[in-house]
Design goal:
Number of strands: 5
Shape: elongated
Structural class: alpha+beta
Strand order of the largest sheet: 3-2-1-4-5
Order of helices and strands: HHEEEHEE
Number of helices: 3
Length: 144
């Protein structure tokens, strides 16, 4: 527990915390946890349905890459590192001119990221093209 939270819980600004203050603090923390848990679900649903009604064209995955992403979260005055690996698939398509786009996915393990990315190199996939702007496209996870 960080010193700030501990001091708030123990001293409550100089006086002992009341039951009401502890309840409010617990509700705020619980709400924050609920939002963080639900955010992944909501984000996943948005990504799943975004662009599904757009027309599709064939695209070829030309290049793949994996990069290390370091996350720093301060805790108790020290920095903790939780590395992740970002796999990127770069694809090209014609509509009617040559266009490019990319699809990214996070992995906890570098070998998994490399294996996943390399399995798509040179593959033909369906790219969903924005009917209002043909230079904008997406690959949907369901189409990979």
């Amino acid at each position: 527990m960080t010193p700030l939270i501990a001091s708030i819980l123990i001293y409550g600004g100089g006086e002992p915390l009341t039951r009401r203050e502890v309840l409010i603090f617990s509700l705020v923390v619980g709400f924050g946890l609920l939002v963080s848990i639900c955010w992944d679900t909501v984000d996943g649903l948005i990504k799943r349905f975004y662009g599904r009604s757009w027309p599709t064209v064939s695209a070829v995955i030309d290049a793949v890459s994996v990069t290390l992403v370091e996350s720093r979260l301060p805790s108790s005055g020290a920095a903790h590192f939780w590395p992740s690996y970002l796999a990127t698939l770069t694809y090209s398509y014609r509509n009617p001119e040559q266009q490019m786009g990319d699809y990214r996915r996070d992995f906890a393990n570098e070998n998994d990221a490399e294996a996943w990315a390399n399995s798509y190199k040179g593959e033909t996939v369906k790219a969903h093209i924005d009917p209002r702007d043909p230079t904008h496209s997406i690959l949907r996870e369901e189409d990979l």
